[in-house]
Amino acid sequence: MSQRLTRTPAHTPARIVHLGLGAFFRAHGALVIARAAAAADENWGITGVSLRSPDTRDRLKPQGWAYTAVELGPDGSRAQVVEILRDVLVAPEAPAAVLEAMAAPEVAVISLTVTEKGYCHEPATGRLDRSHPDIRHDLAHPLPRSAPGYLVRALALRRARGLGPVTVLCCDNLPENGRVVRDVVTELAALIDPALADWIAETVAFPLSMVDRIVPATTAADIARLEAATGIHDAAPVLHEPFLQWVIEDRFAGPRPRVEAAGAQLVADVTPFEHMKLRMLNGTHSALAYLGYLSGHETIADTMADPVFAAFVQGLWRDEIIPVLDAPPGVDLGAYAQALASRYANPAIRHRTWQIAMDGSQKLPQRILSTIAEARAAGHPVPGLTLAVAAWLRYVSGKDEAGEAIDVRDPLAPELAALWRDYDPAATVDGFLQLTQVVPPALAGDAGFRRDLTAALTRLVQQGARASAREVTHG
């Protein structure tokens, strides 16, 4: 009979508060911090915060906040129990307790993985979306709902109490993520208290970071397999690939865990690493997700097993992305592309195309549209990336190639569905180009891009995703 995973929680206070305690952070940042704390024999416990659901808290609490991280390699798996969490709070249940945790004197770092949409900003401009319902709420109430609202109100408490400086560390896939969070937070703070905004600008550090690890969603079957293998029931394990990368700008306001002892990189300039990852990994991941889903492939590994899409993604890297990308120091972009291909093809990682396809309106500006804009400005053709945008537009129509319904998860889902009211590719593209919160101005007014995207979407509708990808690859 299996035993439940359990431990007696440590009573040392947390020095990190993390907003958005999803599977990714537990399989990435939390692991690095746990290893760094052990290597330096320091306390860097984490209080996790769920901004929405109590599910993660309810699964972890009976286990004393411990969980299993399972590495899935092509040749087998390896599991380790992670014991870095000190507590998990659920923001909608106890917003005041979350603010108090963030304003605790011993806290030196507040980190976040709340996904692109969690910053309540306009992806095309990086500005705070003042019309967002959570932002409107947070302007009117001292107990917030949004991640920016929690940061502003917690920093206000820290300022009022005369506490030392703190670092806000974004771990989401946003270009110049630290600057985005800084700008959103200071803009919101200025609307509440201009003096607070000035204090934040002078006192709080917002280093940039780049994170990379494939973390598929955990299923009931995964939990059952882990229990069968170990004899221990863990209600909240996380699964991940062997690869891990965390590049952080070396700009902290105060104490920090020695993450470099656990494999993270501290650098003066994150931007080249960030551009490489967002465009070469996240951009192609999204392209494969939309085209693969439309073609009936459940996972990225399944999509890569299809020779049409394996060739298509190689063409994206070789012909469209690498030519307009500056390599980080010491990095061979061709070798990086081949490493990505191997990671995508790992059959042990069942990363669902539907999971990656979520929130495309928040992801495409930095993952794909920015590359298209730069390439077009340089006179460089990008038919594959244009097809990827067309595939996203077809996906958000809510119907796949067989006419079956697609469960579209996107904060702009109603607006995107409306683009397909007449099921006319040209009209759909025109409507898309008017979405100023998604489309950068350089593309919105580009008649050539409009022409190419309309042709790609028309071809996609007429002959399907697989045939369209083959045509782009082979001409």
From TrEMBL:
The keyword Oxidoreductase applies. One of its GO terms (biological process) is mannitol metabolic process. The keyword Oxidoreductase applies. Keywords: NAD, Oxidoreductase. Residues 15-260 form the Mannitol dehydrogenase N-terminal domain. It holds the Pfam family Mannitol_dh_C. GO terms for molecular function: oxidoreductase activity, acting on the CH-OH group of donors, NAD or NADP as acceptor. It comes from the Bacteria. Residues 269-458 form the Mannitol dehydrogenase C-terminal domain. This is Fructuronate reductase. The lineage of its organism: Bacteria, Pseudomonadati, Pseudomonadota, Alphaproteobacteria, Rhodobacterales.
